[in-house]
Amino acid sequence: MIDLGKHEDPSALCLDDPNRFEERWQAALEAAVPWQDLVAKEAEVARQDAWRQCSSLAHDAGILDRFADDIRHSGVVGEDRIAKLIFLALTSRFLDRPVSVAVKGPSSGGKSFVVEKVLSFFPDDAYHALTGMSERALAYGEEPLKHRFLVIYEAAGLQGEIGAYLIRSLLSEGRLAYEFVEKTRDGLRTRHIEREGPTGLLVTTTAIRLHPENETRLLSLTVSDTPEQTRAVLLLLAEESIDVIDMKPWHALQAWIRCGQYEVATPFAQVLLELVPPIAVRLRRDIKAVLNLIKVHAILHQASRERDSQGRVIATMDDYAVVRDLIADLISEGVEATVPTIVRETVKAVAQLIAEGSEEVSQAQVRKVLNLDRGPTSRRVAAAIQHGYLKNREDRKGRPHRLVLGEPLQEDIAILPSPEAVLQRCTVDGGDTTPSPHSSTDLSRNDEPEREILALCGQRDL
User: Fold this and answer.
1) Cα–Cα nearest to 215, from 100, 110, 98
2) Is the peptide bond before 212 cis (omega within 30 degrees of 0)?
C-alpha cells in the first residue's frame, strides 16, 4: 500500500513538483506497507469491535439453547431442533465443506417461516436468498458465493437436470467450473466460467425426496405436521404479540468468527468412527457432516474451549453430545437403519385397520386413525410406500389408495454411539494417561489421523 498523501496517483505527484518527483516517489515506496498487514490489521480491528458486542453471548455455555429461546420469542414455536440445525449449518459456511440442509414438509407447514427467522440471526453477507432461478443462473451469476449459503425457497426453483448438476458440483467440489460454447464475431468460441466456493445450500420443499444425487448431499429436516403443533401455532397467533429480539449480538458473533481462525481439532474422532457400524456407503458422506457439525459447535463456543499449540480449537465431548441429540435419528434414517417415526406410525395405523377387518385401507381411514388432515396424511403414506413398508394395489391415477402392508418394519439400529460409549472406549484404549492437549491431531485433514489420538481420548475432562 503506497500512500501519496493528497495526490491520487504518481502522475499527480509528478505534476505537483516535477523536480522532486523521483525523490518523493522513492520515499513513498520505502514507506509502503504490505497489503496483507493492512488486511490483518483491519480484520483485528473488526474482530475487536465485534467482540465488544458479542462477548457475553460468546461465553455462554449453551449458545444454541439461548438461540432457541430467542427464536421462540420471535414467533417460532415447536421447531427448536430444526432451527438449531439450520443455525449450525449456516455457521458451517466457514468450513471447507459446509453442511447443506433441505427443510421438508407440507404446504403451509411453516418451512419458509422457520428459515426466514433463523436467517434474521445472521448478517446479510452470510447468505444469498432466492425464490427460484433459471437452469444456468448458478453458472452465470455474479453474486459472491465463497463461504456463503445459497438459500432457495422451494426446491421447484431448481430448474432442470443442468441446474441440479450445477448445484451438485458446487456442493461436492467446493467450486463451480462450467465450460460452454458461445457465438462471437470470430465464430464459435469456448468460454470457461468458475465460481469460487465453498458454498452451502439451504432449500425448502414439499417433496419427500429431492434429486437422488442431491438428496445424499443434504440433511433432510421435516417440520412437524401434528395437530399439537397446529394448536401451538394458533395459540401463538392468538397472543398477537411477538418480542423484538436484539440481533446485534448474534450478528456480531458471526462477524467475530469470520474475522478469526476456525481450525478445529477433534481428539475423540477416531474412536467415534470406530464405533460407527459401516452398514452403508452413504455414511462416508454423512459422518463427515457429523464431524463438521461438531467442529461448528466448538467454533461457536471457542471462547470457552482450549486450543492446541497450533491455535486450533479443541472440540469436547459436550460438542458431540449436543450434535448427537440433534442429528442421531436423521443419520440413521438417511442410511435406512431406522424407520422414520412418521412412517412407523403410518404403517402401524394401516396394520391396526387390517387387524380390525379391512382387507385394503384407504387414506381416509388412515387419516382418521392418525388424526391428521389430507396433506400430511398423503405425505406420510407416500413416504411409507417409498420405503416399501406399504403397497398401493390401486394402479389407476386419481383413484383412492388401496393400501396393504409391505415389508415388515425393521428394528432400529443406532448409528451414532452415545457419548458414554465413546468415553468408555477412549478410557479403555487410552488408559489412565492424560497427555497435554497440545499434542492433539487435526481430523479436519484428509490424511490418516495419528494413533496418538487414542491416548488423547483418555482425558476424563473431554
Assistant:
1) 100
2) no
**What is residue 193's DSSP assignment?**
E
Q: What is the DSSP letter of 280?
A: -
Classify the C-alpha dihedral 181-184-188-189 as positive or negative. Answer: negative
Label residue 149 by pLDDT band (50, 70, 90).
very high
8 Å CB contact between 346 and 370 = yes
Give residue 122's region: left, alpha or beta (phi > 0; psi -120 to 50). Answer: beta
What is the rounded distance in angstroms from the CA atom of residue 355 to the CA atom of residue 420? 41
Q: Is 65 helix (H, G, I), strand (E, B) or coil?
A: helix
Contact between 176 and 168 under an 8 Å Cβ cutoff? The reply is: no
Which secondary structure element, helix H or strand E, spans residue 82, and what is its range? helix 80-91
Q: What grid cell was written down for 64?
A: 444454541
Q: What is the rounded distance in angstroms from the CA atom of residue 102 to the CA atom of residue 111?
A: 10
Nearest to 109 by CA among 243, 204, 242: 204
Distance CA 217, CA 201 (A): 10
Q: Which helix (H) or strand (E) holds 286?
A: helix 283-300
Q: With a cut of 70, say whether residue 154 has pLDDT above it.
A: yes
What pLDDT, on a 0 to 100 scale, did the predictor assign at position 440? 36
pLDDT digits (tens, 9 = 90+) for 69-110: 999 999 899 999 999 999 999 999 999 999 999 999 888 888
Which of 369, 376, 364 lies closest to 347 in space, CA to CA? 369
Contact (Cβ atoms closer than 8 angstroms) between residue 403 and residue 391: yes
- CA separation for the pair 307, 281 (Å, rounded): 33
Closest CA to 340 of 351, 329, 325, 326: 329
Residue 229 has a CB neighbour count (10 Å cut-off) of: 16
Answer for the pair 205, 156: CB distance below 8 angstroms, yes or no: yes
32's grid cell: 509502503
DSSP-assigned beta bridge partners for residue 404? 391
